[in-house]
Write a structure and sequence with these properties.
binds magnesium ion, 37% helix, Succinyl-CoA_synth-like, binds adenosine-5'-diphosphate, tricarboxylic acid cycle, succinate-CoA ligase (ADP-forming) activity, Dna Ligase, domain 1, ATP_grasp_subdomain_1, 25% strand, 15 helices, 20 strands, 7-stranded antiparallel sheet, D-amino Acid Aminotransferase, Chain A, domain 1, Rossmann fold, alpha+beta
């Protein structure tokens, strides 16, 4: 239940990574709407002309302009140029256009984006929902502990749910769903009542919980997060913010959803890694890592940390990487200006050490890599690999074992600062 652990104990890494495929709010809401969800009308726009046209089609006098980035906390976020708020309720179309001019093309920084922020290329211009009585938090995630889908909800929704989970965990209500029995209406009504809904509203909320569950199941979601889930003065309920995440392993059967990928929102290094079938995640340390096997990659990151360093990335080249992938891996690692040393840690099995060595030498030459490289090769064709490196005439350090390799890479990174 990675998402739940993020929720209980947010870490910058968990928030910055895209292990689970995310789509924009407007795309999530389209899926909700198509499956019985109650969302406000809105139009995604990428130009000011489109915003003007959208405003003319939105019936409420007030219009809401919502920055579309793959991170939450937009309302309380700020733009790079100091402009405050990535979600704005505007009094009329004129104001909406003014706001759109400030947001489009600007970079929004929120609690979840990291300091770099994310560029706003799309705005979702929507109806303003009037008569909001309460804003709740409702999400559906997969709980590792109970091995079942679980609803997490709180009557105190809105923007500060992570904080609430820390300070008042008793205000977080959960409902487990038995996957073989499916979702039960009465249980949903009881859960709605726990969240403060009464009478007809509890029925309406229960029906929406079923919609959320059915989407989560049929679309292979790792998370459906509605924040806020709202109750209106007239007793209706709605989802006015939605974030859907999908299981990467289900990409083969959720082609329509995975086609919605917005590469402009993902670290360009991660996009390149995907192209070369490399398992890569950018982190914020200064020791670049190139490793074969996810387990060894994790252990390498641990050893770097143990020796006082900090990994710049996770990178698993897989069991049968070709030379061109190694070159791509180097291009990605050295594309990060924070990288001050590179540790290549290979356990030769199916992967031959000499292939890696050739790749490393070629990549370092082609890319004219300036940062020091430490290579630890062990296993199949180890000697041939070491010879290639020794004969390359390049300033590549060879390490006899894993531990000394990690230690040296950290020392070199410190020196290179
Ligand atoms: P984020 O969670 O990224 O800050 P939200 O979509 O949740 O963005 O918007 C922030 C707040 O703005 C909501 O909690 C709600 O109070 C208000 N809001 C968002 N959309 C609308 C809407 N269509 N009508 C009225 N208020 C809205
Ligand atoms: Mg929200």
């Amino acid at each position: 239940m990675q998402r739940f652990s993020r929720f209980v104990q947010p870490t910058s890494i968990a928030l910055a990574q895209y292990r689970f495929f995310n789509i924009h709010e407007y795309q999530s809401k389209r899926i909700l709407k198509d499956n019985g969800g109650k969302v406000e009308f809105g139009i995604p726009c990428t130009t000011i002309e489109e915003v003007e046209a959208a405003c003319a089609n939105i019936k409420t006098p007030q219009k809401v302009v919502k920055s579309q980035i793959l991170a939450g906390g937009r309302g309380k976020g700020h733009f790079k140029d100091g402009y405050q708020g990535g979600v704005k309720v505007c009094k009329d179309a004129k104001e909406a256009v003014e706001v759109a001019k400030k947001m489009l093309g600007n970079t929004l920084i929120t609690k979840q984006t990291g300091a770099k922020g994310q560029v706003v290329n799309t705005l979702f211009v929507t109806e303003a929902v009037a008569g909001i009585k309460r804003e709740l938090y409702v999400s559906l995630i997969l709980d590792r502990k109970s091995a079942s889908p679980i609803f997490i909800g709180s009557a105190e929704g809105g923007t500060g749910i992570e904080e609430l989970a820390k300070t008042h965990p008793e205000k977080i209500k959960t409902m487990k769903v038995n996957i073989s029995e499916g979702i039960d209406h009465d249980a949903c009504v009881a859960y709605a009542k726990e969240l403060g809904f009464t009478g007809d509203s509890a029925e309406k909320a229960a029906n929406q919980f079923k919609v959320i569950y059915n989407i989560g199941k049929s679309k292979d979601c790792t998370m459906v997060e509605i924040n806020p889930f709202i109750e209106l003065e007239n007793g209706d309920v709605m989802e006015i913010d939605a974030k859907l995440s999908f299981d990467d392993n289900a990409a083969f059967r959720q082609k329509e959803i995975f086609a919605l990928a917005d590469d402009t929102q993902i670290d360009s290094k991660e996009v390149l890694a995907k192209k070369f079938d490399l398992n890569y995640i950018a982190l914020d340390g200064n020791v670049g890592c190139l490793v074969n096997g996810a387990g060894l990659a994790m252990a390498t990151m641990d050893l770097i940390s143990l020796h006082g360093g900090s990994p710049a990335n996770f990178l698993d080249v897989g069991g049968s990487a070709e030379e061109k992938q190694i070159v791509a891996a180097f291009r990605i690692i050295t594309g990060d200006p924070n990288v001050k040393s590179i540790l290549v840690n290979i356990f030769g099995g199916i992967m031959h050490c000499d292939v890696i060595a050739k790749g490393v030498v070629n990549a370092a030459k082609t890319l004219q890599t300036k940062v020091p490289i430490v290579v630890r090769l062990n296993g199949t064709n180890e000697e041939a690999g070491k010879q290639i490196i020794a004969e390359s005439g390049m300033d590549v350090h060879t390490a006899e074992d894993f531990e000394s390799g990690a230690k040296l890479a950290v020392e070199l990174a410190v020196k290179g600062k």
